[in-house]
Every structure is written in structure tokens, then in C-alpha cells.
Amino acid sequence: MNQSIISTFLLFVLIAPIFGQMFYPKHKMTKKYFIITLKTVTWHEAFYHCRSIDMNLVSISSKAENDQIKQQIIDEGHIEFGQFWTSGTKLPDNSYKWLGIGKRVGFSDWFSGKPDNFNENDVNCIQILEKGKGWNNAPCNLKQHIICEQELIEYEYCNH
Questions:
Q1: Closest Cα partner for 44 from 118, 144, 136?
Q2: Beta strand extents in 16-124 (DSSP E only)
């Protein structure tokens, strides 16, 4: 009896993933960005504002994603609005981490000479500079505009 139950369980464990792929659609993760320019806020306020609307302060993982955000800033007419907060923050070892996704910053688009250690203990947050100049490390208590991001799942269904 026990051997029959174990055999049935093992058969299910081996075959279930095959059937799952037949009946469930393929999917990919994408991001949608929301640029908020109605008011300026500190980095901490920006972080909590995005979380309060079930989003994250933007994290940028690739050149393509960075270019997409810069283009959206231009397309939506926000190019003259100044700086925008990202979820990037400096760690004690002087590296940077995206708190929105919990990963270290890999790709970067630092403005020339940045990051710097001007007033070393005070420049811990990453901002996107005006007019697409790149990133800057800035004091977290500055008031900036916000870019929130929302992860979306796009499904692909079979059309047979």
C-alpha cells in the first residue's frame, strides 16, 4: 500500500510540470513607470509614497531600462522638471543598492565625476538629473520629483 502511494506521488511530481506547461500560458515580467511631478518630496517620502500605492521607487537594471525612463520623461514633457528620485541608496561599504528590488546596482549611468563623496555622510541617495544628464548621488533630504514603477505580468496564449 505505501509503495503504491509513493509511486503515484513520484509519477505526479514528474508529470505535473509537463501538463502545467500545456495548460498555463507563458509569461514575462515588464515594468510600467509613473512619473509624479505634482510635488517634490524627500527620498524617504518618495519611497513610502510609491509603497503606499502598491509600487516601488524606480530601480534601473539595464541601459535599455534607463533609456526607456529618460525617453518617457521627455515624451511626457517632464524634461524641465529637474531631478527625480530612484530607489538607489548607498550602503556602509560605499556601494549602492536598489531598495525597490533589493539588489546591488550593476548597470549605472553616473554623471561625469559621480558618485562623489562631497559631504561624505550626506550623499546617500541616487537621483536622475535634469535633462537626462545621468545619475547623481545626493542628500536624501532634498526635495525631488518621483518615479514609481509597477511590475506587470504579460501572458502569451497559444492561438492554435
A1: 144
A2: 26-41, 56-57, 84-90, 96-98, 103-104
Beta strands in the chain (DSSP E): 26-41, 56-57, 84-90, 96-98, 103-104, 125-128, 135-138, 144-156
pTM: 0.77
pLDDT along the chain (160 residues), means of 10: 68 60 69 93 97 96 94 88 92 92 94 75 85 89 96 72
Amino acid at 77: G
- Closest listed residue to residue 83, CA positions, set 32, 139, 141, 131: 131
What are the Cα distances from residue 146, in Å, to 43, 81, 141? Answer: 9, 11, 14
Residue type at 105 in one-letter notation:
V
Q: Which grid coordinates belong to 31?
A: 515594468
Question: Domains in the chain, ordered, with CATH?
Answer: 27-154 (3.10.100.10)
